[in-house]
TrEMBL record:
Full protein name: Nucleotide pyrophosphohydrolase
Family matches, as InterPro entries: dCTP_Pyrophosphatase, DCTPP
Domain of life: Bacteria
Organism whose genome encodes this protein: Longimycelium tulufanense
Molecular function (Gene Ontology), one example: nucleoside triphosphate diphosphatase activity
Length: 110
Protein backbone atom coordinates (compact mmCIF):
# COMPACT_ATOMS: atom_id res chain seq x y z
CA UNK A 1 0.00 0.00 0.00
CA UNK A 2 1.41 3.40 -0.97
CA UNK A 3 1.60 6.40 1.32
CA UNK A 4 -1.17 8.07 -0.67
CA UNK A 5 -3.42 5.03 -0.17
CA UNK A 6 -2.76 5.03 3.57
CA UNK A 7 -3.52 8.75 3.83
CA UNK A 8 -6.67 8.35 1.76
CA UNK A 9 -7.86 5.50 3.96
CA UNK A 10 -7.27 7.63 7.06
CA UNK A 11 -9.22 10.50 5.48
CA UNK A 12 -12.10 8.23 4.49
CA UNK A 13 -12.28 6.90 8.04
CA UNK A 14 -12.02 10.40 9.51
CA UNK A 15 -14.91 11.66 7.36
CA UNK A 16 -17.02 8.55 7.99
CA UNK A 17 -16.64 8.88 11.77
CA UNK A 18 -18.09 12.40 11.49
CA UNK A 19 -20.70 11.53 8.84
CA UNK A 20 -19.21 14.07 6.41
CA UNK A 21 -19.30 11.85 3.31
CA UNK A 22 -22.38 13.63 1.92
CA UNK A 23 -20.37 16.87 1.77
CA UNK A 24 -17.40 15.30 -0.01
CA UNK A 25 -18.64 15.68 -3.56
CA UNK A 26 -16.16 16.40 -6.35
CA UNK A 27 -17.43 19.99 -6.66
CA UNK A 28 -17.23 20.70 -2.92
CA UNK A 29 -13.80 19.12 -2.61
CA UNK A 30 -12.47 21.04 -5.63
CA UNK A 31 -13.72 24.30 -4.11
CA UNK A 32 -12.16 23.46 -0.74
CA UNK A 33 -8.90 22.57 -2.50
CA UNK A 34 -8.88 25.93 -4.31
CA UNK A 35 -9.47 27.71 -1.02
CA UNK A 36 -6.61 25.89 0.69
CA UNK A 37 -4.30 26.63 -2.26
CA UNK A 38 -5.22 30.28 -1.81
CA UNK A 39 -4.31 30.10 1.87
CA UNK A 40 -0.93 28.62 0.89
CA UNK A 41 -0.32 31.48 -1.55
CA UNK A 42 -1.37 34.04 1.05
CA UNK A 43 1.51 33.00 3.31
CA UNK A 44 3.99 34.10 0.61
CA UNK A 45 2.06 36.79 -1.25
CA UNK A 46 3.80 40.00 -0.17
CA UNK A 47 7.20 38.61 0.79
CA UNK A 48 10.32 38.99 -1.33
CA UNK A 49 12.40 35.90 -2.12
CA UNK A 50 14.96 37.07 0.44
CA UNK A 51 12.27 37.51 3.12
CA UNK A 52 10.90 34.04 2.38
CA UNK A 53 14.39 32.53 2.66
CA UNK A 54 15.00 34.33 5.99
CA UNK A 55 11.59 33.44 7.42
CA UNK A 56 11.92 29.80 6.37
CA UNK A 57 15.24 29.64 8.20
CA UNK A 58 13.63 31.13 11.32
CA UNK A 59 10.96 28.42 11.36
CA UNK A 60 7.44 29.86 11.86
CA UNK A 61 6.81 30.37 8.14
CA UNK A 62 7.88 26.78 7.45
CA UNK A 63 5.32 25.55 10.00
CA UNK A 64 2.53 27.63 8.47
CA UNK A 65 3.46 26.48 4.95
CA UNK A 66 3.58 22.87 6.12
CA UNK A 67 0.04 23.16 7.52
CA UNK A 68 -1.30 24.77 4.35
CA UNK A 69 0.53 22.34 2.06
CA UNK A 70 -0.89 19.45 4.08
CA UNK A 71 -4.40 20.88 3.69
CA UNK A 72 -3.89 21.10 -0.09
CA UNK A 73 -2.63 17.51 -0.26
CA UNK A 74 -5.43 16.15 1.90
CA UNK A 75 -8.17 17.84 -0.13
CA UNK A 76 -6.51 16.68 -3.35
CA UNK A 77 -6.45 13.10 -2.09
CA UNK A 78 -10.11 13.34 -1.09
CA UNK A 79 -11.02 14.77 -4.50
CA UNK A 80 -9.16 11.98 -6.29
CA UNK A 81 -10.85 9.38 -4.09
CA UNK A 82 -14.29 10.85 -4.85
CA UNK A 83 -13.51 10.76 -8.60
CA UNK A 84 -11.89 7.32 -8.67
CA UNK A 85 -8.48 8.70 -9.64
CA UNK A 86 -5.28 6.95 -8.59
CA UNK A 87 -3.20 10.05 -7.94
CA UNK A 88 0.17 8.29 -7.97
CA UNK A 89 -0.58 6.64 -11.33
CA UNK A 90 -1.94 9.89 -12.76
CA UNK A 91 1.13 11.85 -11.61
CA UNK A 92 3.53 9.33 -13.12
CA UNK A 93 1.58 9.33 -16.40
CA UNK A 94 1.71 13.13 -16.46
CA UNK A 95 5.49 13.15 -15.96
CA UNK A 96 5.81 10.57 -18.76
CA UNK A 97 3.82 12.82 -21.11
CA UNK A 98 5.83 15.89 -20.11
CA UNK A 99 9.12 14.06 -20.69
CA UNK A 100 7.95 13.35 -24.22
CA UNK A 101 6.58 16.87 -24.81
CA UNK A 102 9.59 18.66 -23.33
CA UNK A 103 12.77 16.71 -24.11
CA UNK A 104 15.99 17.86 -22.45
CA UNK A 105 17.77 20.65 -24.25
CA UNK A 106 20.69 19.39 -26.29
CA UNK A 107 23.84 21.44 -25.99
CA UNK A 108 24.78 23.05 -29.30
CA UNK A 109 28.30 21.78 -30.12
CA UNK A 110 28.65 23.18 -33.61
Amino acid sequence: MSGFEELTNRLVGFAAARQWERFHTPKNLAMALAGEAGELVTELQWLSDAEIRDELAAGPLRERLADEAADVLLYLLQLCHACGIDLETAANAKIDRNEHRFPPQQEDRS
